[in-house]
Design goal:
Helix content: 25-40%
Oligomer: single chain
Distance between the termini: 212 Å
Order of helices and strands: HHEEEEEEEEEEHHH
Number of strands: 10
Largest sheet: 7 strands, mixed
Structural class: alpha+beta
CATH class of one domain: Mainly Beta
Length: 312
């Protein structure tokens, strides 16, 4: 027969769990604060690592986009050319950044005005024009298209080319400052960076002097008007005198009037107008209408007599 023995060894599982919980609660406060600090430090480190990774990703995405929108390089020998016969010449060197797939690449040259050079006459300088630099904003660009060649006479294609670009006044260019941007016409990719150029020359002179009104000019005009009026009055006085001079001629004064002329020399009287179309008939033409009825009556009477004679 088996007998029960008291347990004197290790504690049962529920008792062990209670003892471990009591030991954990019995830890000192400084130990618990150190663990919390370690946890907080680990969270900050993880957050910092995430921020660095995001920044690197943004930089990696931005660098290819910049390279795609600014391909190659453009160099201008003289960015401030002088005007020669209404033209400016820009000597350019373009590096395509690689061998182009075509020997001639269509490109678009955009010139945006930023400063206008105005020559003006002012009250301080009425004889010699002065130069005014006028800033410009929101101006429309002047676009010029050109096929840039990257090959030689044999047809070999190179990645670098040199050429001259000519700007003319009849194309809208004037002396001043411009921003130049070059792009490929096929995909709009910018070639090189934006460049600032200055076109030196003499623009049209503008008169900026103030207008002054004085009384002297008005007085002179009044004098001229008065002189013209006096001349007209003198001419009017001379005209009656010249008209009266022929009447003083004794030959004309002694000439007889129409009433004193003899009857033979007097003009024939004119019959008054009787209406109608205003035509005057000769005496023969005027008598013709009265004679026709008489002739008709005479013929009718003769015919009636003949008929009576036959009947009788």
């Amino acid at each position: 027969m088996r007998t029960a023995r008291p347990r004197t060894g290790h504690l049962s599982q529920p008792g062990a769990r209670r003892q471990r919980a009591e030991r954990s609660h019995a830890r000192p406060a400084h130990a618990r604060s150190g663990a919390a600090r370690r946890l907080a430090g680990g969270g900050r480190g993880l957050l910092l690592a995430r921020v660095v990774a995001a920044a690197l990703a943004l930089i990696g995405a931005w660098l290819p986009a910049t390279a795609a929108h600014a391909a190659g390089t453009v160099t201008i020998a003289d960015r401030a050319p002088k005007e020669d016969g209404g033209r400016w010449k820009l000597k350019m060197t373009i590096n395509y950044g690689g061998t182009p797939h075509l020997s001639h690449i269509p490109m678009l040259f955009s010139f945006t005005p930023t400063m206008h050079y105005e020559r003006a006459l002012t009250d301080q300088s009425p004889e010699k024009p002065i130069l005014n630099r006028i800033p410009l904003q929101n101006q429309q660009s002047i676009n010029e298209s050109m096929d840039v060649g990257f090959s030689d006479g044999s047809g070999k294609v190179f990645k670098i080319t040199k050429f001259d670009f000519v700007l003319r006044r009849d194309r809208g260019f004037e002396a001043g400052e411009y921003d130049l941007v070059i792009k490929r016409a096929s995909d709009g990719v910018q070639m090189g960076q934006k460049q600032k150029i200055t076109l030196k020359g003499d623009n049209e002179i503008m008169d900026r002097r103030a207008i002054v009104f004085t009384g002297e000019k008005k007085k002179k005009t009044d004098d001229k008007a008065a002189g013209a009026e006096t001349e007209k009055s003198d001419e009017a006085e001379k005209e009656p005198a010249s008209d009266a001079e022929p009447a003083s001629d004794p030959a004309e004064a002694e000439a007889p009037s129409d009433a004193e002329l003899p009857p033979d020399e007097a003009p024939p009287p004119v019959s008054p107008k009787q209406g109608g179309c205003g035509c005057r008939l000769s005496p023969e033409e005027a008598a013709t209408p009265l004679a026709l009825p008489l002739v008709a009556l005479g013929a009718a009477g003769a015919l009636a007599r003949r008929r009576r004679a036959r009947r009788g």
